[in-house]
Amino acid sequence: MRTTSRHRTMAEAALEELREAIILGELVPGAPLRLEDLARSLGMSISPIREAVRQLEALGLAEHVPHHGAKVVALDVDDLRELFEVRLALEALAVRGAARRFGDEDAARARSSLEAWATARRGNDVREAMRAHTAFHFTVYEAAGSQWLLRLIRPAWDSCERYRPALLSPKGDLQDRHERLDAELLAACEAHDEDRAAATLRAHLELAGEFYAVELGDRGIFER
Predict the structure, then answer these.
(1) How much is the pTM?
(2) Which of 85, 167, 169, 172 shows the greatest Cβ crowding within 10 Å of its Cβ?
(3) Which CATH number does 77-216 carry?
(4) Which residues make Cβ contacts (< 8 Å) with residue 168, sequence separation at least 6?
(5) How far apart are CA 124 and CA 108, in angstroms?
(6) Strand pairing partners for 65?
């Protein structure tokens, strides 16, 4: 039993390392995910790496190519637009549910993550900024009390982040607006205002159209 638990822990650690590497562009689109190379770089055996790569495929971050193994999936602008439409539908449900149920403990955790995100951005710590920003949003989504929503939101979130993480630029007008919208989302949830929370969430996603301007050809994220 101890061996099984240890194996599961190693596989989860491998998944998190590889997931972050893909999102941050350290593993570029099309890069082969060779089990031996990954095991060597992460200091693990093949077995947890194989399990982690399978999970990456399930999350839509990797794909299996017959006779060649897995590779990081390519970027596609139509896919990006579809992902944001899915995110809008799912995350709007989540923030409405969160606004109904939001408590003091949820608010404290969310505020702590926002502060950690701002600190990491000022220090140009991209990886920690990504973690803190993700923690903020998922603290809000978890407050809705729906495990199904969390399971559905996470792969779409990860696939969007890898196009161009908003966290990569530590300052500027877009970042300032991004930070204000996250603070507004927290305030709406604390006020138990479902409509305001959903409207802020949509504005937050629409702002991504400016972060992804190159990929979108200067059209809004929800414009076809």
Answers:
(1) 0.78
(2) 167
(3) 1.20.120.530
(4) 126
(5) 24
(6) 69
Residue type, position 139, single letter: T
pLDDT per residue rounded down to tens, the chain (224 residues): 233 344 458 889 999 899 889 888 889 889 999 999 999 999 999 999 999 999 999 888 899 988 888 999 887 878 888 888 999 999 999 999 999 999 999 999 999 999 999 898 888 888 888 889 999 999 999 999 999 999 999 989 888 877 765 445 555 777 888 889 999 999 999 999 999 999 999 999 988 777 776 666 666 677 66
Six-digit token string for 70: 């897995």
Residue 112 half-sphere exposure toward CB, CA atoms < 13 A: 9
Distance (Å, whole) CA 69 – CA 55: 14
Please report, as a single letter, which amino acid is at residue 208: A
Tokens of 106: 């949820």
The topology under which CATH files domain 2-72 is: Arc Repressor Mutant, subunit A (1.10.10)
